[in-house]
Amino acid sequence: MRKILVLPFVVLAAIVLVPAAFAGQPTIQRIPFEDHSVSESCGFPVQLDATGTALDISYTDELGNFHDFQAGPQVKQTMTNLVTGKTIVVNISGPGHYTFGSDGSFTLVGTGNWSWGRVNPANLAPGMYLTKGRYVLSISASGVRTFTSTGTTIDLCAQLA
Q1: 0.85 surpassed by pTM
Q2: For 94-128, how does the pLDDT look when each residue is reduced to its tens digit (9 = 90+)?
Q3: 3-state secondary structure string, the chain?
Q4: What residues make up the domain containing 94?
Q5: Distance from first CA to last CA of the chain, Å, rounded?
Q6: Does 95 reside within a domain?
Q7: Is residue 123 assigned to a domain?
């Protein structure tokens, strides 16, 4: 009688654990981050200088989806209006969890502070924005884009003008 009861648990454990054995082990890296560019998104030139160290954890799951978690707890972006010289510094620490689906889909779940240096992520209007809070950006395998947010969006061009 005991053998009959144990067998379903062994089968269930095999169903649950075997796919996990085929998933890739995570890769964990600390990556120095430095990016310098000039943006015209505000209607005037803005020098963007971002520096810090990013934590990156990536793996491929048993379904072939690639996951990448990134956080930059000390990453800052200095933004300078090249016409007036006005400068602001913003924290762009994230974090974010990227998922590249094996079907071609993409999802980014972000929390914290994110800089959007070319467009407003909600409506794709040109400019430079800082989001604070949680958002989800998804692009389906067929190319349909959705963006939802439960935080605030700050117009950085207005602060730099």
Answers
A1: no
A2: 999 999 999 999 999 999 999 998 889 999 999 99
A3: CHHHHHHHHHHHHHHHHHHHHHCCCCEEEEEEEEEEEEECCCCCCEEEEEEEEEEEEEEECCCCCEEEEEECCCCEEEEEECCCCCEEEEECCEEEEEEECCCCCEEEEEEEEEEECCECCCCCCECCEEEECCEEEEECCCCCEEEEECCEEEEHHHHHC
A4: 25-160
A5: 79
A6: yes
A7: yes
